Amino acid sequence: MENALLSTFLPGLLYTVLFFALSFVSVLFVKLCVYYIRTAPKTKSSAAEKTAAAPKQDIASEEKSPAAAPAKKPMRIRRRVHNIEIRPDEINRIYVAEHR
Predict the structure, then answer these.
(1) Measured distance CA(3)–CA(30) in Å, rounded
(2) Whose CA is closest to 34, among 45, 26, 23, 46?
(3) What are the helix (H) ranges across the chain?
(4) For 79-100, how does the pLDDT look when each residue is reduced to its tens digit (9 = 90+)?
(5) How far apart are CA 54 and CA 23, in angstroms?
(6) How far apart are CA 45 and CA 41, in angstroms?
(7) pTM over 0.85
């Protein structure tokens, strides 16, 4: 009986460890592929073809259009407030926002 238990336990344990390693490696591979797809630089071949085929007047108008776009403001870093001072003679209602 002990021999039969050992003969099934050891291969089962080995297959479980191998299946875990295979799953771990495959998940890492998929995450790496998604990371490289998202961070891949955009190809400029279509933009280069447009500028090569376009006349000189179109190039001048294309140079002005990106400058006209408004620049994005950087996001402010919010500071945590630990103390709040409330003056009851100036404030008559207090609204509490739900924490997300």
Answers:
(1) 41
(2) 26
(3) 2-39, 45-53, 56-68
(4) 887 787 888 888 888 787 777 6
(5) 51
(6) 12
(7) no
From residue 17, give the alpha-carbon distance in Å to each of 24, 27, 30, 35.
11, 15, 20, 27
CA 13 to chain centre: 37
**Tokens standing for residue 89:** 């003679």
The answer to whether the beta carbons of residues 57 and 65 sit under 8 Å apart is no
Label residue 17 by pLDDT band (50, 70, 90): very high
Residue 71 three-state SS: coil
Give the span between the Cα atoms of 12 and 16, in whole angstroms. Answer: 6
